[in-house]
Every structure is written in structure tokens, then in C-alpha cells.
Design a protein that fits this description.
The protein has 171 residues and is α/β, with parallel strands linked by helices. Helix 1 packs across helix 2.
Length: 171
């Protein structure tokens, strides 16, 4: 917690408040997280079994249903989270293009049986790598939604797309 960091710094004779630590976390935390994520992904691209699990979850923002698309790698690390208003093949294609531009092509893409993913994979030319058979094959992506749902309940929902996107980039 912020107060623990304050106590650790106080033991080293550095006097800062927990508010200062919170400001530092908000300012420098995303940079550190992005650097760690980038280094990890450089190592993971060389792995033979580079797999993505794609899934979406329904989120209400001011009473309007939106979709939170999430890409998770085979180790359970969240690659990308994008909030969209639509759940069609155009949105899936935009999401997949963005992912492949940033992370390269995976060996396999595991999805649920949503037809828009199949259409988007066919448009990209990656349809032979899509895998959507089996009941529990996409559990890795489904389980990555649980911490998000817990935090969403604690925050009493979201009021704008911007706050949702900012929240999901951190959690």
C-alpha cells in the first residue's frame, strides 16, 4: 500500500507523504509497467507455442452496453484491452489488426464461437490458425475477467469510456 511505501522510505530517512507516493505511482507506474511488458513480450515472441486467447465481456457505461475485448497470451498475461461500442466483424478486425501490428502473428488464436472473430481472421488471412473448439478451451481469457469484475463492483460501475479504458489499462 501507499503507507507501506511511505514507511519504507521513512526508515531510509526520506520524508514523503503517502499522497506524494500516490502521485508518483500515477505518473511513473504506467511507464514502468509498459517497459516490463515490452521486455517480456520480446522474449515471448521467440516461444514456439505463442498463443492468444481472445474474449469479450459486456460492460455498462451510463446504462449503455459496451464490449470490452481482451487478448491474453498462453501464460495468462493480458496483452491488450479495448472498449468498443459494437461487437461486429469490423470491430474484431480493427482489434486483431492492432494486436498483430503491436505483437506480431501468434501460432494459434483461441476464441469463443463468436462469428465476428472468424470473419476477421479470414479477412486477415489467419483463419487456419484460429481454434474455437471445446467447451473450456478459452478459460484463460475468461479467468482474466474476474479481477476486473471485482474492481468494477467496488467502483460502482463506470461513467465514461475514458475511465473504463484507463482503468482496464492498469488492472
Amino acid at each position: 500500500s501507499l503507507r507501506n511505501v511511505e514507511d519504507l522510505l521513512h526508515e531510509r530517512r526520506i520524508d514523503v507523504s503517502h499522497e506524494t507516493v500516490r502521485i508518483w505511482r500515477n505518473r511513473f507506474g504506467p511507464m514502468f509497467a509498459a517497459d516490463i511488458r515490452r521486455k517480456r513480450l520480446e522474449r515471448m515472441r521467440s516461444v514456439r507455442c505463442w498463443r492468444w486467447h481472445l474474449d469479450e465481456v459486456f460492460v455498462k457505461i451510463n446504462g449503455v452496453t459496451h464490449y470490452l475485448c481482451r487478448a491474453v497470451d498462453h501464460e495468462g498475461e493480458v496483452l491488450e484491452v479495448v472498449a468498443t461500442r459494437r461487437r461486429d466483424s469490423k470491430a474484431a478486425l480493427r482489434f486483431l489488426k492492432r494486436e498483430m501490428k503491436r505483437y506480431g502473428r501468434p501460432q494459434k488464436v483461441i476464441t469463443d464461437r463468436l462469428p465476428s472473430y472468424g470473419a476477421a481472421m479470414k479477412a486477415i488471412g489467419n483463419a487456419q490458425r484460429q481454434l474455437c473448439k471445446g467447451v473450456r478451451i478459452n478459460n484463460r481469457a475468461e479467468n482474466s475477467h474476474q479481477p476486473f469484475r471485482r474492481r468494477e463492483r467496488a467502483m460502482l460501475r463506470f461513467r465514461s469510456m475514458k475511465t473504463l479504458q484507463k482503468f482496464t489499462s492498469v488492472h
